[in-house]
Amino acid sequence: MATKDQTPQHEVRPVTQETRIPERFIPVPTIEPGHSFSTITDHISTIVLRKKTPIGWLIGFLIALGGVGLLTVSMTMLIGKGIGIWGINHPVGWGMDIINFVWWIGIGHAGTLISAILLLLRQEWRTSINRFAEAMTLFAVASAGLYPALHTGRPWYDYWLFPYPNTMGLWPQFRSPLMWDVFAVSTYATVSALFWYVGLIPDLATLRDRATNLWVKRIYGLFALGWRGSAKHWHRYEHAYLLLAGLSTPLVLSVHTIVSFDFAVAQLPGWHATFFPPYFVAGAVFAGFAMVLTLAIPARKFFKLEDFITMRHLENMGKVMLATGMIVAYAYAMEWFYGLYSGNVFETFMLKNRATGPYASMYAALWICNGLAPQLMWFKRFRTSPFWLFVVAMFVNVGMWLERFVIIPASLHRDFLPSSWGMYHGTVWDWSFYIGSIGLFFALLFLFVRFLPMISIFEMRTLLPEAQAHAEHEEH
Amino acid sequence: MAIGKIKEGLYGVVAEFNDPQTLLDAANAVREKGYTHTDAFSPFPIHGLAEAVGFHKSRLSLIVLTMGILGGAGGFFMQWYANVVSYPLNIGGKPLNSWPAWIPITFECTILLAALGAVFGMLALNGLPMPYHPIFNLRRFDSASRDKFFLVIQARDPKFRLEEARRLLESLGPREVTDVPW
Question: Shortest CB distance from A244 goes to which of B48, B52, B118?
Answer without folding.
Answer: B118
